[in-house]
Amino acid sequence: MIRTLLAMGLLVGCPATAHAVEAGGDDAQVLEILSTTQPRDAAIARGLAWLRGRTGSDGLIPGDHGTAMTALAAMAHLATGITPEDAAHGPWLRRTLDGILSRQDRTGYFGAADNSRMYGHGIATLLCAEALGACRDPELDERLRTALEKAIAVTVNAARVEKNNHHRGGWRYTPFAGDSDLSLSGWQLLSLVAARKAGVTVPDQVVTDAVAYARRMISPEGKVGYERADDDHPALRGLALFALTVAPRDDDRATIARIAARIQADPPTWNGDWPLYRAHYDALGLGAAHPETWTVVGAQWQTLLLKQQGKDGSWTPGSGHERGHGPVYGTAMTILALAVDRQVLPAFAR
Asked: pLDDT 10s digit of each residue in the chain, 350 long?
């Protein structure tokens, strides 16, 4: 029975389990591994506890860009299977969702209250979609759906702002911007995909145009750029892979292979500009588009990230542009990367 579940992909994310199956281990051995807390699971649990300890009575984590950071923390919980109905941590998650919903303005925009702009809007919108997929409370479900529909309207309208051919289909810092970048556009695309999976209407053309924009950020050699295809930003390669799985074309296989090869040839490091951003998108993109490479790269990321966890359970970015974003960002992004294999979140399901 255990082997049947593994074959169906219902038990994932444990290298020790996979090894036991490949080595011919029996069901009892596999069950013992699954019932034993793995180092990754223990690290995630400590990180989640640290995030909960940062939350104020209003359900929000204080500090810069509080709406966005709190949304990342809540999404990290959802990614590990914790829902509003969870006996231990459901009350915390409900209070956090209440706090985030209170930060949406009357137009549906999430990015004004904490000045996180369209980054925060995309992240909070994504959270609403992921929480809606996990919610079993009719009243909370209705509030999430209403907030999500209003937020998606903001995202869709921002995508329809007139732009030149190079920027068309993407998003930038404000809902009225006339330019685009791939990093910010990634959160909007994720939120659109998750909203659609949660049953909210999303115009097909907006998604198609977003994927087309992402394609324009990929060079023939498999470089992935922030605003131009030849920029080659390692942190965005996985995002490009994810985009290609949203609206695939027959000729994508070669492009995916080139990007995956570039990722594998550039091993994970803690000293880059955006290591945690990269870890998150490597996990998401490779897991969806090139799982055989994720088997290798994911093990490298797991080893690196577990070594960097602080004694208090948090992860603090140590270099580059991420340093200024602090441990709430670092901890939430790390947990999202470590938990992608569980395929709990709708936008992350393969």
From this structure: 444 444 334 344 444 444 444 445 566 654 555 556 789 999 999 999 999 999 999 999 999 999 999 999 999 999 999 999 999 999 999 999 999 999 999 999 999 999 999 999 999 999 999 999 788 899 999 999 999 999 999 999 999 999 999 999 999 999 999 999 999 999 999 999 999 999 999 999 999 999 999 999 999 999 999 999 989 999 999 999 999 999 999 999 999 999 999 999 999 999 888 999 999 999 999 999 999 999 999 999 999 999 999 999 999 998 778 988 999 999 999 999 999 988 788 777 76
Contact in structure between 257 and 294 (CB atoms under 8 Å): no
CATH class of domain segment(s) 37-348 = mainly alpha
- Rounded Cα gap, residues 334 and 229, in angstroms: 27
Cα distances (Å, whole numbers) of residue 314 to 53, 161, 317 = 11, 39, 10
Q: Are the C-beta atoms of residues 27 and 2 closer than 8 Å to each other? A: yes
Burial 45-67 (b: 16+ CB within 10 A, else e): ebbbebbeebbeeebbbeeebbb
3-state secondary structure the chain: CHHHHHHCCCCCCCHHHHHHHHCCCCHHHHHHHHHCCCHHHHHHHHHHHHHHCCCCCCCCCCCCCHHHHHHHHHHHHHHCCCCCCCCCCHHHHHHHHHHHHCCCCCCCCCCCCCCCHHHHHHHHHHHHHHHHHHCCCHHHHHHHHHHHHHHHHHHHHHHCCCCCCCCCCCECCCCCCCCCEHHHHHHHHHHHHHHHHCCCCCCHHHHHHHHHHHHHCECCCCCECCCCCCCCCHHHHHHHHHHHHHCCCCCHHHHHHHHHHHHHCCCCCCCCCCHHHHHHHHHHHHHHHCHHHHHHHHHHHHHHHHHCCCCCCCCCCCCHHHHHHHHHHHHHHHHHHHHHHHCCCHHHCC
C-beta of residue 320 within 8 angstroms of C-beta of residue 301? no
- Supply the pTM of this predicted model: 0.90
